[in-house]
């Protein structure tokens, strides 16, 4: 539980740094778009390449490949549930997209994987990465296009092959084939990957600084979204996995779906100058509350 708290505390600290930088006017809030561009087009693809080039091997796929199928089976159920609740919450179409994505897809990359390694070791992290592959693909294709809607007309190819998706596919190819690349390539990927979490959280803080904290905390819909994200979704996937007898997938399923709202509801909209007020509120509140809900979920469901 201490390791869980430390991981969340570290992330929140970088969020506070970004918030302070804007409040003392060392950085202008509108300059945060630069960080979004760096994350989307450089750091996210590097992180994806690093993860899958090192882990997505033939041997591991043969041993743990069924985790992919379990994850693929859960995503439609979770997305449909989130879509129904977002419609009940109402709002204009883009707001419903943000609500749906916040409830269905968690912060698996910046928080889930590091937390899995800290609490359950390398083996637990690898299982989470395998289970999280379909979720990552969904976030970087469907999720990316939902949260950047209206940014011009895109072809089907452009909708599928987002920058992060390119990193995923390239990493999978290198991992499966065992292609030997210069160590410099992997060092670049590692250094870029290490920057993702702190920069993402600073971007979150910068985005939050544009709005009144009171305004973010007073949005009643946000608390419904956070309750669904932090309580309903982990319990739902626990029930489904148990009913189907896939107990081997309990750890990655519960851990990843117990994570707070993903920061992509800030990062992706910022890229196209869309309002990220709602995304900032859900990330802020769910990340803080998750310091309590994550240990409870893992204690009672695993």
Kindly describe this structure.
The chain has helices at residues 2-23, 32-55, 58-64, 66-89, 93-104, 108-147, 156-160, 163-177, 183-209, 213-217, 220-244, 250-257, 264-271, 277-301. By secondary structure, the protein is mainly α.
Please tell me what the overall shape is: globular
Biggest beta-sheet profile: none
* Helix share bin: over 70%
Tally of helical runs? 14
Give me the secondary-structure topology.
Layout: H1 2-23, H2 32-55, H3 58-64, H4 66-89, H5 93-104, H6 108-147, H7 156-160, H8 163-177, H9 183-209, H10 213-217, H11 220-244, H12 250-257, H13 264-271, H14 277-301
Helix pairs in contact: 1-6, 1-9, 1-14, 2-8, 2-9, 2-13, 4-5, 4-6, 4-11, 5-6, 5-11, 5-14, 6-12, 6-13, 9-14, 11-12, 11-14, 12-14
Keywords:
mainly alpha; 14 helices; globular; 302 residues
Short description:
It is built from 14 helices and no strands.
């Amino acid at each position: 539980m201490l390791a869980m708290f430390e991981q969340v505390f570290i992330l929140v600290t970088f969020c506070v740094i970004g918030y302070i930088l804007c409040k003392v006017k060392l950085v202008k809030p509108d300059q945060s778009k630069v960080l979004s561009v760096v994350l989307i087009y450089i750091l996210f693809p590097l992180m994806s390449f690093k993860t899958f080039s090192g882990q997505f091997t033939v041997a591991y796929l043969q041993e743990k490949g069924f985790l992919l199928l379990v994850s693929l089976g859960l995503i439609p159920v979770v997305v449909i549930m989130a879509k129904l609740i977002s419609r009940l919450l109402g709002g204009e179409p883009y707001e419903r997209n943000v609500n749906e994505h916040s409830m269905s897809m968690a912060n698996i990359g910046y928080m889930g994987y590091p937390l899995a390694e800290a609490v359950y070791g390398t083996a637990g992290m690898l299982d989470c990465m395998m289970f999280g592959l379909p979720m990552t693909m969904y976030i970087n294709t469907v999720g990316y296009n939902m949260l950047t809607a209206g940014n011009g007309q895109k072809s089907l190819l452009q909708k599928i092959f987002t920058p992060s998706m390119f990193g995923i596919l390239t990493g999978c190819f290198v991992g499966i084939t065992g292609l030997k690349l210069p160590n410099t390539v992997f060092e670049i990927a590692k250094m870029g990957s290490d920057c993702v979490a702190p920069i993402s959280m600073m971007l979150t803080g910068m985005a939050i600084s544009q709005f009144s904290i009171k305004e973010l905390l007073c949005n009643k819909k946000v608390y419904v979204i956070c309750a669904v994200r932090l309580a309903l979704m982990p319990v739902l996937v626990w029930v489904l996995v148990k009913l189907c007898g896939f107990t081997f997938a309990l750890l990655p399923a519960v851990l990843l779906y117990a994570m707070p709202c993903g920061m992509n509801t800030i990062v992706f909209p910022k890229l196209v100058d869309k309002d990220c007020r709602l995304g900032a509120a859900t990330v802020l509140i769910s990340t803080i509350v998750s310091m309590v809900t994550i240990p409870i979920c893992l204690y009672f469901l695993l």
